[in-house]
């Protein structure tokens, strides 16, 4: 009580003294609280042009029903799995893909901002294919992650500034189907290697508010992640990744949020499935969509929340496949939103 009284008396003395001497400041600095900024980061699944759809002269009609949804995200990534290099190699489907470059125009048309190029088909056509890939991607002025043109390119941080929210992007693949480039071009494809991933995330973490990682991993055509995916997800969590978007299984897999003993949270979408591909032998691969999170920044405080999956499906109309929001065509699709929720789990909003 004595201490409280002393402090009160001292403050009162100061106030009285200032009043008597009339030396209050003539201008008062008002400290304004910085407003919160929220942005949505999203990724769509595999854009893998099997020969049936690769021959379309215009892809816009196939993507049109999804345009408003995709354009609504503040930043959108696509996994461009089949290299758009048909101007040099012709249109080729499975197992070594070569797709028309005008798929890039359609992706930009519907709102895609960045391409992930780290996948098992990146070097289907060797060094000439890689060279053509980058020529076409650069001609379209498309930012990219996961494959690079030089060591300098590989170590240039991919940082996106969205209304003051800084997001760092990384991409990796488990392999390239047994095709490899010369040893002196190891920068060309980012392979999944523990030490490299940890180093990359740690280097990027100090420069950004959020680190997002595209991981091309896991078994194909199964709706549950495997032990290696879980191990890598834990490694990514410990390294400091905030968001993980998974691809390669061509089918949906669960979402989870990991939290380590330091409080680091990582939102993990183990697989977001196909977006534009025709694996007719596995009908569930016709269900895909866009995985997203909301990033809120206020001052130095940054939170990642609201994991959401907007489901899509491919429907044959006439002689063309068209991508629709699954919610609009459930009665015509191979699966419905209930199935999507069951696969992804209860902790993600499905729409």
Structure explained in plain terms:
There is one protein chain. This protein has a single domain, classed as 4-Layer Sandwich (Purple Acid Phosphatase, chain A, domain 2), CATH 3.60.21. It contains eleven helices and 15 strands. It has helices at residues 2-21, 51-54, 60-63, 67-71, 86-89, 102-109, 126-139, 151-154, 194-205, 227-239, 337-344, and strands spanning 37-47, 75-80, 114-116, 144-145, 158-162, 165-173, 210-216, 243-247, 252-259, 265-272, 274-276, 287-298, 301-317, 320-325, 349-350. The strands form two sheets. Strands 1, 2, 3, 4, 11, 12, 13, 14 and 15 form a nine-stranded mixed β-sheet that branches. A hairpin with a 2-residue loop joins strand 12 (287-298) and strand 13 (301-317). The longest helix is centred in the N-terminal third of the chain and has 20 residues, at 2-21. The relative contact order is 0.14. The model is unreliable at 1-21 (pLDDT under 50). This is Capsule synthesis protein CapA domain-containing protein. InterPro entries: Capsule_synth_CapA, CW_Biosynth-Accessory, Metallo-depent_PP-like. Belongs to the CapA family.
Produce the secondary structure layout.
Layout: H1 2-21, E1 37-47, H2 51-54, H3 60-63, H4 67-71, E2 75-80, H5 86-89, H6 102-109, E3 114-116, H7 126-139, E4 144-145, H8 151-154, E5 158-162, E6 165-173, H9 194-205, E7 210-216, H10 227-239, E8 243-247, E9 252-259, E10 265-272, E11 274-276, E12 287-298, E13 301-317, E14 320-325, H11 337-344, E15 349-350
Parallel strand pairs: 1-2, 1-11, 2-3, 3-4, 6-7, 7-8, 8-10, 13-15
Antiparallel strand pairs: 1-12, 5-6, 9-10, 12-13, 13-14
Helix pairs in contact: 9-10
